[in-house]
Predict the structure.
Amino acid sequence: MVHDPLAVFYTTVGCLDYYLIREDDRAIKDCRKLEMDPNFARAHSNLVVYKHKRMHDQSFHELETAITLEGVDPK
Protein backbone atom coordinates (compact mmCIF):
# COMPACT_ATOMS: atom_id res chain seq x y z
CA MET A 1 0.00 0.00 0.00
CA VAL A 2 1.36 3.42 -0.95
CA HIS A 3 1.17 5.97 1.83
CA ASP A 4 0.43 9.51 0.69
CA PRO A 5 1.94 11.84 3.30
CA LEU A 6 -0.44 14.63 2.29
CA ALA A 7 -3.61 12.54 2.61
CA VAL A 8 -4.14 13.32 6.29
CA PHE A 9 -3.45 17.01 5.66
CA TYR A 10 -6.00 17.25 2.85
CA THR A 11 -8.57 15.29 4.84
CA THR A 12 -8.29 17.68 7.76
CA VAL A 13 -8.47 20.70 5.45
CA GLY A 14 -11.75 19.27 4.18
CA CYS A 15 -12.83 18.82 7.77
CA LEU A 16 -12.17 22.48 8.44
CA ASP A 17 -14.20 23.48 5.38
CA TYR A 18 -17.19 21.53 6.68
CA TYR A 19 -16.66 23.05 10.12
CA LEU A 20 -16.80 26.57 8.68
CA ILE A 21 -20.08 25.95 6.86
CA ARG A 22 -21.56 24.24 9.94
CA GLU A 23 -21.76 20.77 8.38
CA ASP A 24 -20.81 19.45 11.79
CA ASP A 25 -21.46 15.74 11.31
CA ARG A 26 -19.48 15.68 8.06
CA ALA A 27 -16.63 17.64 9.66
CA ILE A 28 -16.46 15.19 12.56
CA LYS A 29 -16.57 12.22 10.21
CA ASP A 30 -13.66 13.56 8.14
CA CYS A 31 -11.55 14.58 11.12
CA ARG A 32 -12.13 11.26 12.87
CA LYS A 33 -10.14 9.60 10.08
CA LEU A 34 -7.21 9.89 12.46
CA GLU A 35 -6.18 6.31 11.80
CA MET A 36 -4.19 7.75 8.89
CA ASP A 37 -1.98 9.51 11.42
CA PRO A 38 -3.26 9.66 15.01
CA ASN A 39 -0.41 12.01 15.93
CA PHE A 40 -1.40 14.74 13.47
CA ALA A 41 -2.28 17.59 15.82
CA ARG A 42 -4.26 19.58 13.24
CA ALA A 43 -6.86 16.82 12.92
CA HIS A 44 -7.39 16.89 16.67
CA SER A 45 -7.57 20.68 16.82
CA ASN A 46 -10.15 20.76 14.03
CA LEU A 47 -12.37 18.52 16.15
CA VAL A 48 -13.34 21.56 18.20
CA VAL A 49 -16.35 21.24 15.89
CA TYR A 50 -17.75 19.19 18.75
CA LYS A 51 -18.54 22.50 20.45
CA HIS A 52 -21.16 23.23 17.77
CA LYS A 53 -22.94 20.07 18.89
CA ARG A 54 -22.54 21.07 22.55
CA MET A 55 -20.20 18.13 23.10
CA HIS A 56 -17.87 20.22 25.21
CA ASP A 57 -16.00 17.37 26.91
CA GLN A 58 -15.02 15.87 23.54
CA SER A 59 -14.09 19.28 22.17
CA PHE A 60 -11.87 20.00 25.17
CA HIS A 61 -10.25 16.55 25.00
CA GLU A 62 -9.38 16.92 21.30
CA LEU A 63 -7.95 20.39 21.81
CA GLU A 64 -5.90 19.19 24.77
CA THR A 65 -4.60 16.28 22.65
CA ALA A 66 -3.63 18.66 19.84
CA ILE A 67 -1.74 20.93 22.24
CA THR A 68 0.08 17.97 23.77
CA LEU A 69 1.03 16.63 20.32
CA GLU A 70 2.51 20.04 19.56
CA GLY A 71 4.78 19.58 22.58
CA VAL A 72 3.07 22.02 24.92
CA ASP A 73 1.92 21.05 28.42
CA PRO A 74 -1.75 22.13 28.55
CA LYS A 75 -1.85 22.22 32.35
Q: What stands out?
A: The chain has one domain: 7-69. The domain at 7-69 is CATH 1.25.40.10 (Serine Threonine Protein Phosphatase 5, Tetratricopeptide repeat). The first helix runs from residue 7 to 20. Helices lie at 7-20, 24-31, 41-46, 56-69.
